Amino acid sequence: MRAAEEFGPWLARQLKNARKSQTELADELGMSRAAVSAWIVGRSVPRDDAIRRIAEILRTDLETIHTRSTDAQAGLPVSWYHRPGHRDGGREYGNAAAFAFEADVSVLAREATQNSLDARLDPAEPVRVRYTLHELTGEALARFREAIDWESLLPHYEALTDGSVKQGKVSRTVSAGLRDMYQHDRLLLLRVDDYNATGLTGGDYDNGLFAAVVRRQLDSHKKDAGAGGSYGLGKATLWAGSRLGLVLINSTLSTPHEGRTERRVIGRLDLPWREVGGEEFAGPAWFGRPDPDARAADVARSWWADEETVEQLHLTRESAAPGTSFLVVGAHDVASLAPVTGSADDEESTEDDDSLHRMHARLVEALGRNFWAAMTGSGAHKPHLEASVRSCRNGEVVIAEERVDPVVTQPSRTRALRAFLEGDTVERLTAPGQVARATVQLNVPLHGGQVRGGVPHEAVLLVTHAEDADGRPNRLVSMRGNRMTVKDSAVTNVPIGTNAFQAVLLTGRAAGPDAPGAECAEEFLRASEPPEHNKWGQTEELRLAYSSSAHRRITALTTAANNTVRELVAVPRAKRRSGGEAKIAGRLKVGGAAKKPRPTGTAVLPELDNVDALIDETGAWSVTVDLRVSSGVDTDRPVTPVAKFDVRSGPRPGAHWKELVAVSGCEVVDGALHLTPGIRKAVFRGVTDEARHPVRAQLTGLIVELRTGKGEQA
After folding, report:
1. Average pLDDT, the chain
2. Could you tell me which residues are beta bridge partners of residue 31?
C-alpha cells in the first residue's frame, strides 16, 4: 500500500497521540534526541532495528509503520466526548437548527444533495451522489452497536427517557427510536456518499469545511454566489433525520490535512441537556480520538481510521475519489409512518419491506423533482450531478441501485433544457416535441439601499408541451446556477384552447455563460431565498443587502415570465382564422347546438353572453359566465347551468360541478341560479369536479348550457 505521508510528520503525530516527547522516545530507544529530531524534520530515516523498536514502543506492527496509511493504536483510544453543562446553568433542549426542517427524507435529500453540488470539485465532471438505505437486525446490529461504543452512549439516552429531562420533541423522538430498535431488534441507516467533491477539508477547529459541518452551527462556509446554501442550516437535516440524533462521517479530502487524505472519521451526537451520573452535559457529543493539544484530555477530534474500522462503522467508500460519506443512524421519515396492510403471519416483515420501499421511492422522487435539471446534460454539456438510490438489509441488496433518470422523472422539462443546451429551440411552438425560447428581463438592484437603477439581466424562458410523467401541467419551474428547482408555481389565466405545457425559467449562471448580469442575478436571487430555498421573495438578507423594496424586482420578473409563457402558448391570431377557430370552439362551446325556433309558450331564458374558461392546476375546468337578461326573461324562474364534455360521437357525458358561485346579479340555491329582479346582466363562476371527469380536461372540450327547472335548454 502506498505511504500516505512522509515518515517524519507521521512519527510526530504518533508521539503527540501517545503523549510522548522526542526526548522520551530517544531515551527508550537509547539514542540521542538529535537523531529523533532528524527523523521528524526529514533529514534522515531510522534503520530497520530502530523501526522495530519504534513499533514496540507505539504498540503497533511493522506494516503500519512502513505503509503509514493509518495511525498507530498506541496512546489515546477512540471514545465519546460529551460537552459539559454550561457553567452559568444555561440549558438547550435541542438543536434549534434541526427544527428549521421537517424530519423528512425528501427534505434531507434536497439539502444534502444541494451541499454536494456546492462542493463539486471538478466543474467539468458531475458530482456523484449515492443514497443507501441499510437495515440492520440481529447479529449485524449487535456488531454495529459495539463499533460505536453503544454501552457508553446508553446512559445518555436513558437520561432522556426516564422522565428526568423535560420531554420536548427531541426526547420524544429519541424515545421512539430506542423503542423501535429494542422491540423490533432493527436499526435503519441512511448513508449519503458523494464523489468528485472537496471533502471536509481544514482543521478540526479552524475556519474550514470540517469545522463548519462538524463543530459549528449557522456556518455555511460557502463564498461562491452561485452556491445553493447560504444559511448553514442544511446540514442539520442529517441530524434531524436521525431518531437517535447521531451521524457518523468519513471524508476523503481533496487537499491533505496532516499529510493525509483518506478515511478522516468522526461522529457527532446531538441531544438535549441531560444529567448522567450526577454530571450535567450541554447537548452535543463527538466520537473521535482525544485531542492531545486540547486543554481537556478527553476533548475528541477526528482521526485517521484504518479500513477495518470504517467497515465496522458501515462507512467504507467505493473509491479514493474525494468526497464525504454521512451515515444517519436511526433514520426515519415522517411521511413513511402511515400503517401498512398485510397478513397477520408476516405483518412485521411486510411492514419492514414496505417501509424500505417507500423511503427508497421517496428518495428517488425527491431527487428527480428537485435536481432533474442538474442531472441533465447533452453533448459537450455534462450534467452537474449523477444520483442513485439503493436499499439493503444486513449487507444483502433488497432493492438494486437505481440511478435517477431525469428523462423518466421529468421528460418534458428535460427535453426543454436539452434543447437549450444544444441550441435547438424555436420562437413559437408549432409541433409536438418543440421547445420555444424567449428572454425575460430582470433588473437587478444595486447594493446599499439604492432603489433606482440596477444591472440588467436576461433570464431564459423555455416552454414545451407537457407529458403525463411530469405531474401537474401548466407549471413554471425556476432555478439559478446550481440548477436545483427553487420555485414551482402554476401559470394562471392560460388562453382557452391551449395545449398542456411545462415552462422553465433559467436565471443567473443557468441562463448561460454569456447571459448579461448573470453574476449579479445569482447574488441577488440567492439573498432572496429562505432557508428551505424553495422560493424567491422578501428576506432579511435581501432587505439588509439591497433595500426594503428589492423584492418587487422579483415580483416583476415573475409577472413578466408568466406573461411571456401565455404569449408563447397562445394560438396565433392568423391560425385562429384558418382553422384555429374550430379548435377553440371545440374546446369550449357556449350553449351547445345552434339555436332552433322556440315553440310558442316556451320560457325565455337568459343568453350566454361571454364565457372565460381555463383548466386550473388540478385539471378541472374553471369557467366564469356572463348572462344577458332580456326584458322577456322571467326572473322568478330559476335557471340551472349544465356542463358537458364535447365528444366526437355518442352522448355527451355531463361534467359535475364541484363549485358553483354567484358573482353578481344572482344567487345560487341548490345548484340553480336565482336571478335578481330587474337586472340586465348576471355573472356566475363554476369549477368542475376533476375527480369525476370521465376523461382528462386537456383531451376534450367543454359545453356550457342553461336549462330551466323543467329541463328546457337554451
Report:
1. 83
2. none
